[in-house]
């Protein structure tokens, strides 16, 4: 079985590792960069990566490491991007993964051909055909811009292109959004900008990185045995004790449960707001020149706008009439992996979990390895389940573009493990 993988980031690496471990050795992974790491390859200028110079993880070390390759003991609870890249590089060395990777080769076009096979056209001018195709190209590289982008006459940049606060000294800055990228940009910019405002269109749960001295995600682990309703109540109570009311910070109060939206994990934002370094603003009504008008009737002038407005789901190597989910409200994939019309096509890491994506990509890869080697099979109704599952996930979260890929970490992981542990001996 000849297998292609697109992307050698965290998802692509664990895919190689677990396919090889399952006994599948005829693997080629195409990576357009000159090294492994994907989004964790930091560059001081805009690139494919969305991380900035001060990026740290928002999931803790203990909840982010691969099951058979722990992070070093001297890593902090929340490692830096340099440490995470070094971890992935060590993972690739330890399991000898680089021999399966072709660096500096981008996949330019993918066509499905007869017998559920795949034809790839590559940036080096060559072509290749494969029996199976794994997509691990990530979903944080194509920015989603606001409609008013071109109305602003000052400096505009998407959070994807924000790399450091050095060029923003003494500038009046408006950050759009209150997600993880928005809060990171606002906090870092506030260290040397003349003014930092943060515009919120809707309420957002902002959760400290530590609860009772422990990483927040380890607190969530301790609640998993409880019914979801009780978990939600305890999470709200713990946030009220630690943070107080969001309106005390000038932030809108969420009117939904913590698990209905992707959380923002940030401790510094509260400190910066209460020290007057960051000023929450309402949603934008319109922009004229460098003046921004807000829906509460106020207005202000800014030198720079940083739009943390999310990313598009993009597969530039597929024709748009084949697979195109940029504006999809739900994604019809069984277990977020299997396409009902293309049984030899698999998606790795095409999820936005309320937890760490790497450990889920590892479980996805284990499942695919067992499936392709005939150790397990999918349920007979998996194609029908793919359609229903996409709708079901969409109903569990607030209808926003950022939630098109959202999953609840533990229920999703459990659903993967149930199939991985099944004892069926044939695959479809």
TrEMBL record:
Signal peptide: none annotated. GO terms for molecular function: flavin adenine dinucleotide binding; N,N-dimethylaniline monooxygenase activity; NADP binding. InterPro entries: FAD/NAD-bd_sf, Flavin_mOase, Flavin_mOase-like, FMO-like, NAD(P)-bd_dom_sf. It holds the Pfam family FMO-like. Its cofactor is FAD. The keyword Heme does not apply. Keywords: Endoplasmic reticulum, FAD, Flavoprotein, Membrane, Monooxygenase, NADP, Oxidoreductase, Transmembrane, Transmembrane helix. It is a single-pass membrane protein. It is found in: Endoplasmic reticulum membrane. Its main location: endoplasmic reticulum. Belongs to the FMO family. This is Predicted flavoprotein CzcO associated with the cation diffusion facilitator CzcD. It comes from Nitrosomonas ureae.
């Amino acid at each position: 079985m000849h297998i292609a993988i697109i992307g050698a980031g965290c998802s692509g690496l664990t895919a190689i590792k677990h396919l090889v471990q399952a006994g599948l050795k005829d693997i080629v992974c195409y990576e357009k960069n000159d090294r492994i790491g994907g989004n964790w390859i930091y560059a001081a200028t805009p690139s494919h990566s969305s991380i900035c110079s001060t990026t740290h993880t928002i999931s803790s070390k203990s909840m982010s490491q691969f099951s058979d390759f722990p992070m070093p003991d001297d890593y902090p609870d929340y490692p830096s991007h340099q440490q995470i890249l070094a971890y992935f590089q060590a993972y690739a060395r330890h399991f000898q993964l680089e021999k399966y990777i072709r660096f500096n080769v981008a996949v330019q076009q993918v066509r499905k051909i007869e017998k559920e096979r795949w034809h790839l056209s590559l940036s080096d001018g060559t072509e290749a055909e494969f029996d199976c195709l794994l997509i691990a190209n990530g979903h944080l590289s194509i920015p989603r811009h606001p409609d008013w982008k071109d109305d602003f006459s000052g400096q505009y940049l998407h959070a994807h292109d924000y790399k450091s606060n050095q060029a923003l000294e003494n500038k009046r800055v408006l950050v759009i959004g209150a997600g993880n990228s928005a809060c990171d940009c606002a906090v870092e910019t506030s260290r040397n900008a003349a003014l930092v405002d943060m515009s919120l269109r809707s309420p957002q749960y902002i959760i400290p990185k530590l609860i009772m001295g422990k990483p927040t995600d380890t607190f969530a682990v301790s609640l998993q045995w409880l019914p979801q309703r009780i978990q939600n109540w305890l999470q709200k109570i713990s946030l009220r004790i630690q943070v107080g009311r969001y309106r005390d910070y000038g932030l809108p109060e969420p009117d939904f449960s913590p698990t209905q939206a992707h959380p923002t994990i940030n401790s510094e934002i509260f400190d910066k707001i209460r020290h007057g370094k960051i000023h929450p603003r309402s949603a934008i009504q319109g922009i004229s020149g460098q003046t921004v008008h807000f829906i509460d009737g106020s207005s202000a002038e800014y030198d720079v706008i940083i739009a943390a407005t999310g990313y598009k789901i993009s597969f530039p190597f597929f024709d748009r009439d084949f697979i195109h989910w940029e504006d999809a409200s739900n994604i019809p994939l069984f277990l977020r992996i299997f396409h009902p019309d293309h049984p030899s096509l698999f998606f790795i890491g095409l999820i936005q979990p309320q937890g760490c994506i790497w450990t889920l990509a590892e479980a996805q890869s284990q499942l695919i390895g067992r499936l392709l080697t005939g150790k397990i099979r999918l349920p007979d109704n998996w194609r029908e389940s793919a359609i229903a599952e996409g709708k079901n996930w969409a109903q569990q979260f607030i209808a926003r573009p950022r939630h098109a890929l959202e999953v609840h970490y533990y229920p999703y992981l459990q659903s993967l493990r149930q199939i991985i542990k099944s004892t069926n001996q044939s695959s479809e």
